[in-house]
Amino acid sequence: MRVNKNDLVIILSGSSRNKKDSREKRYRVLTVDKKSGKVTVEGVNVVEKHVRPSRRNPRGGKLSMEMPIDASNVQVVCPKCNKPTRVGARFAEDGAKFRVCKKCGTDISPIAPAKK
Ligand SMILES: [Zn+2]
């Protein structure tokens, strides 16, 4: 899984996908769960939870929160070329590892630091 927190992504499938602008609209990744392969994305798959009044939330009412979606339903948008892209990995000579955009070849972010 090559999606990280704070990545910008597009939605490939699921109910949140808007057919017309699905390749245009970008969303921010809020959390990544590597174990389950799920991500939560800002404004995507939002559910309204009805909560009883509690000490933390004395008035109760509705609480909206993002539910996890499968990471395979999103595609990372390259910050450099601004296109939805597959993400590859690149090893530098010093052993450092980077995520790279398959479209333009730019490093998106480091994965692992250089080995000493
Ligand atoms: Zn790119």
Explain how this protein is built:
The chain is mainly beta and 116 residues long. The chain has two domains: 77 residues, SH3 type barrels; 34 residues, no CATH class. The protein has no helices and ten strands. Strands 6-3-2-1-7 form a five-stranded antiparallel sheet, with no helix packed on it. The two termini are 26 Å apart. Zinc ion binds next to loops.
Outline of this structure?
This protein is mainly beta and 116 residues long. 0% of the residues lie in helices and 41% in strands. The strands form three sheets. Strands 6-3-2-1-7 form a five-stranded antiparallel beta sheet, with no helix packed on it. Strands 8-9-10 form a three-stranded antiparallel beta sheet, with no helix packed on it. Strands 4-5 form a two-stranded antiparallel ribbon.
